[in-house]
Amino acid sequence: MRNREELLDMRTSLSCPYIGGNKASLWRVVVILQIISAILLPSGVDSKINSFNRLEIPSRPQLVIDSLETGRPVYYFGLGSNMSRKKLENRGLNGTKIEIRSMKPAIVPNYRLAFNLKGFPPIEPGMGSLEPVNSGAEASLTYEYGECHGALIKLTPENYEKVMRSEGVGLGRSDQGYDEIIVDAYPYGRSKNPVKAVALRARDHVRLNYDPRPSARYMAILKEGAKELGLRPCYQEFLERHPVQVLMRWQRKQAIFNILFMFSFSSLVKWRGLTQFQSRLLFLFYSSDSSGQLVKLLNATMTTLILFPGALMGLIVYHMMELTGKRPESVKRLFDFLDKDH
Question: In Å, what is the CA distance from 11 to each residue of 46, 139, 195?
Fold first, then answer.
């Protein structure tokens, strides 16, 4: 589930200090972006029209509040990349480590692994989330037993908060992508003794009513974590069979350059409306597994056209960075992070 927040963190650090600097060689890029913003932004736009600003700040479960106040350990149920101990331990912000008291496989009944948190199509269409099996959201592949397997992780309140910060949760922001929910988690071998644990579910404003295909890269992380954790073979086989989004190399490059530009643009003008509008268009033309070949071809063509302007601008920005030798480390991380098909 970390992918979306990693991308959002990269957006924050990508271009504000750099593109907005005094380097003469980048002056043209600034002018181009400002001209585009003048064209696209209506006169007198008020930030209140941004739908994210109308969202309520989510309340935290009483279990979490009590644990933070009393210092009692918190159980967290991880179902994505957090199933890997190594990855979880290194997720603390600013290079800090996350200390794990215990970590064991567990089952949460009546919930399923979903990928219905809006991502960045087509390269990362959907992110991991815990979804009630009776919510009506359409799954790409259903696990026959109507349950979700994952990692039951015991953490101190301090380390629990580190995990939540890495997911963009608990910061008092109305636009956070996840809600903390309380579930009954059954550790393997203890079928009658559930543990109250915190899990993350996609919030309404970023939750789709169907599961886009996760990227092959993201699913590879889940399968690696499931194997490391020792989840039941039938669940690991379910992950192996799950449909994934596979792109040709040029499609991945186009999507990455588009993300580079969109993040840079939104940071420069302090406005995310263009990114949100493009996301709506991309999901409008997103093809489900059940779509016919003609529909898939049409949608792929429209996706390419939607991404082309941003990808072209991103390519220009990238080469300007290369020519000046001032490519931020965050840009390198963005490409290393996304430019993989497995």
Answer: 22, 29, 37
What six digits make up the tokens of 291? 């779509």
- What does the block give as tokens for 230? 């020792």
* Residue 93 token pair: 């912000």
Using only C-alpha atoms, the chain has a radius of gyration, in whole angstroms, of: 21
21 Cβ contact partners less than 8 Å away, ≥ 6 residues apart: none
| C-alpha to C-alpha distance for 11 and 167, rounded to whole angstroms | 15
Q: Cα(278)–Cα(118) distance, rounded to whole angstroms?
A: 12
Nearest to 263 by CA among 120, 127, 53, 91: 120
Cross-strand partners of 179: 201
In this prediction, residue 94 carries a pLDDT of 78
Span 110-121, pLDDT tens digits: 999 999 999 999
**How many CA atoms are closer than 13 Å to the CA of 130, on its beta-carbon side?**
28
The answer to whether the beta carbons of residues 53 and 47 sit under 8 Å apart is yes
Q: Which residues on neighbouring strands pair with residue 152, listed in sequence order?
A: 77, 104
Answer yes or no: pTM beyond 0.85.
no
Domains and CATH numbers, the chain: 3-45+247-338 (no CATH), 62-241 (3.10.490.10)
